[in-house]
Amino acid sequence: MTTESSSIIIDGKLVAKKIRDEIASEVARIKDSTGIVPGLAVILVGSRKDSQTYVRNKKKACEEVGIESFEASLPEDCTEEDIIKHISDFNSNPSVHGILVQLPLPQHINEEKILNAVTIEKDVDGFHPLNIGRLAMQGRDPLFVPCTPKGCMELLHRYNIEIKGKRAVVIGRSNIVGMPAALLLQRANATISIVHSKTKNPEEIIRQADILISAAGVPNLVRGSWLKPGAVVIDVGINAVDDSESPRGYRLVGDVCFGEASSVASAITPVPGGVGPMTIAMLLSNTLSSVKRIHDLK
Amino acid sequence: MTTESSSIIIDGKLVAKKIRDEIASEVARIKDSTGIVPGLAVILVGSRKDSQTYVRNKKKACEEVGIESFEASLPEDCTEEDIIKHISDFNSNPSVHGILVQLPLPQHINEEKILNAVTIEKDVDGFHPLNIGRLAMQGRDPLFVPCTPKGCMELLHRYNIEIKGKRAVVIGRSNIVGMPAALLLQRANATISIVHSKTKNPEEIIRQADILISAAGVPNLVRGSWLKPGAVVIDVGINAVDDSESPRGYRLVGDVCFGEASSVASAITPVPGGVGPMTIAMLLSNTLSSVKRIHDLK
Ligand SMILES: NC(=O)C1=CN([C@@H]2O[C@H](COP(=O)(O)OP(=O)(O)OC[C@H]3O[C@@H](n4cnc5c(N)ncnc54)[C@H](OP(=O)(O)O)[C@@H]3O)[C@@H](O)[C@H]2O)C=CC1
Ligand SMILES: NC(=O)C1=CN([C@@H]2O[C@H](COP(=O)(O)OP(=O)(O)OC[C@H]3O[C@@H](n4cnc5c(N)ncnc54)[C@H](OP(=O)(O)O)[C@@H]3O)[C@@H](O)[C@H]2O)C=CC1
C-alpha cells in the first residue's frame, strides 16, 4: 500500500529515544561525579490492567536510563490515609526525587486530596495546582511541567517549528493535557484558542491554526478539510477502534484522520509513535531536573 | 453633540452600587445575628499618589458597607521582612478576613515573595498561584477570583448575556486581568482566544468575538471595524490621554474607540463608569465570602 503524503512525519519514537539517551548520559555523569542516583517513586492503587502496564513501562524506562524506581502497590480497597502515608514516606525519603500517583484512582478516593499530598518539590507530573498556577502566570515558573504537553512542545522544538506569533489551537481543556498545552503555547508567544465539547463549529477555528494540538480523545474528529494547508498537527489522542484484522480486535488511532491530514499538514505526528513515547521521556526528564534542583547540581 | 448609538450601555456604576447595597445588607444581617464584623486589611508601601488614592477609596467603600478596614502603611525604604511581618500579623488576626497588598511595590521588594506570604484563606485579591491554578483546573474551585475579571463576568451575568458556546476573545494576558478573565470565560463554557502584543493581525480574531474583553492598556486600540456586529464589549482599559479642554489636562479612555464601537456592538461598557467601579465592589464581595467561609455562615 502506498500513501500519498506531503507532510513531514514527526517521529516521536526517535525523538524520545534520543532524549532517553541524553538523560542516560546525564544520570551516569551525576552518579560518577557525586554518587547521587535519581529516584522515581510510583504509587499504584488497585489492579487495573492498563495502569499496571503503564507502571511497568515507567519502571522499565527508569532502569534503562539509570534512574532508581520505587513502587508502592496498594489494594483497591485501601483508604485515603493509607495512600497519603506512602506519599509522606516518599516525600521525606531523600533517595526519591519524583513521586507519581498512577491515575485513575478508585472511586472512593478523593483524587484532589491525594495529589495535593505530593510535595511540590517532587511533583514530577506537574499536576499540583501551585504548579499549574505558576504555569498560567507571567513572571512565574512552575517547578515541573505536565509530561504530555511538555512532550508536545519538545517535538515542536526539536523539529524547529516556530511558535512565536503563530495561531495555535488546542482541542481539549483537561487538567493533564489540553489546558497546560494551551498555557505552554501561550508562554511561547503563540496566540491560542481552546476548543472543547461546547464549541460551536470547531472547524472554523481549527482552520485558522498554524499549530494544532488535539487532545479530545475522539477518533477521526479532525478531518483533512478542517486544516489550514501547511499546518503543524500534534495528535495527542489515543483511541481504540474496532479492527477485526488486528489480532487484538482493535487498533489505536488519534483524533486526526491521519490519511486525509497528512496531505494537507506540513508536519504531523502519527498515532502510535508520535506524542505517546514522549510522555515517559518527559517524566524521566522531570525526574532528572528534580534531582538537579534538590542537590543544586549543574 | 449627539452620538448615534445602537448599543446598550452597560452601566457598571449602577450595577456596582446595587452590589454594594446587597453587601451592606448582608453585612448588617451577619452582624445582627452573630456579632461578627467582616474586616479587610490593606498594606500600602511607599507614598505613590495613585496608590494612596486607591487605598483611600477602598477604605471608604468598606466603611459604606460596614466592613471594618485595617491599614498598615510602610515607608518606601522598608524591608521585605517588615512587610511580611505585617502580613503575618494580619494572617493570624481573627478580625481580619481579607488581606490586600497594594501594587506596585517598590523596586527592591520581591512581589512574588510578598504575595505568597498572604494566607490563601484571606487572599481576597485572588492573586496567589494556588488560586490561579485552581481557577485554571477543571473540578477545582479557587477560594477567590481576582476582582477585575470577576467584575467583568458579573456585568455579563447581570445583563443576561449568554456565555456558553460563544466565541470570546480577551485582549491581554496579565496575571491580574487578561489571563484570569480568559479562564473565567472558559469555565463558563465560552470558546476563548487570547490576543497579546505578539499577536499578528489581531483584528482578524477580534472580529470573530461574540464577547470581547479588552485589557491591553492601549487607548483606541480596538476600532469599530474590528468588531462583529452585535458583539458585547467589556472595556477594562483605563488610559489617560492628553486633553487640553479638561481642567486636569487629560481624560480617561478605554482600549476601545467608544464612538465607533457603540454603533456596532450590541452592548458596551463605557470608560469611566464601566468595569472600573466593579473592581472595588468585587473586593467587598470577596471579603464577604471570606468571612462567611471562615465562620461557616450561610
Ligand atoms: N500520548 C499520551 O501520552 C497521552 C494521550 N492521552 C490521550 O489524549 C486524549 C485526551 O486525554 P485527556 O485530556 O485525558 O481527556 P479528557 O477526556 O479529560 O478531555 C478531553 C477534552 O476534549 C474535549 N472534547 C471531547 N470531545 C470533543 C469534541 N467532539 N470536540 C471538541 N472537544 C472535545 C473535552 O471537552 P469538555 O471539557 O467540554 O468536556 C475535554 O476538554 C485521549 O485520547 C487520551 O487517551 C492522554 C494522556 C497522555
Ligand atoms: N477597571 C479596572 O478596575 C482595572 C483596569 N485596569 C486597566 O486595564 C488595562 C490592562 O491592565 P493590566 O492587565 O494590568 O496591564 P498589563 O500591562 O499588565 O498587560 C497588558 C496586556 O495587554 C497586551 N497588549 C499590550 N499592547 C497590546 C496591543 N497593542 N495589542 C494586543 N495586546 C496588547 C500585553 O501583551 P504582552 O503580554 O505580550 O506584553 C499584556 O498581556 C490597563 O489600561 C489598566 O489601567 C487594570 C486593572 C483594574
Topology:
The structure is a homodimer of 298-residue chains.
Chain A: E1 8-9, H1 12-34, E2 39-45, H2 49-65, E3 68-74, H3 80-92, E4 98-101, H4 111-117, H5 129-136, H6 147-158, E5 167-171, H7 178-187, E6 191-195, H8 202-206, E7 211-214, E8 232-235, E9 239-242, E10 250-253, H9 258-261, E11 267-268, H10 276-294
Parallel strand pairs in A: 1-11, 2-3, 2-4, 5-6, 5-7, 7-8, 8-11
Antiparallel strand pairs in A: 9-10
The structure holds NADPH dihydro-nicotinamide-adenine-dinucleotide phosphate (2 copies).
One NADPH dihydro-nicotinamide-adenine-dinucleotide phosphate binds at residues 148, 171-174, 176-178, 195-199, 202, 215-218, 221, 236-239, 275-276, 279 of chain A.
Quickly describe the structure.
By secondary structure, the first copy, chain A, is an alpha/beta fold. Chain A contains 10 helices and 11 strands.
Name the CATH homologous superfamily of the largest domain in chain A. NAD(P)-binding Rossmann-like Domain
Radius of gyration of chain A: 20 Å
Topology order of chain A in helix (H) and strand (E) letters: EHEHEHEHHHEHEHEEEEHEH
The interface involving the most residues is between: A-B, 36 and 35 residues
Percent helix of chain A: 25-40%
Mean pLDDT level of chain A? 96
Distance from N terminus to C terminus of chain A (CA atoms, Å) equals 50 Å
Strand neighbour order, sheet with most strands of chain A: 1-11-8-7-5-6
Largest sheet of chain A: 6 strands, parallel
Which small compounds were modeled alongside the protein?
NADPH dihydro-nicotinamide-adenine-dinucleotide phosphate
Number of domains of chain A: 2
Low-confidence stretches of chain A: none
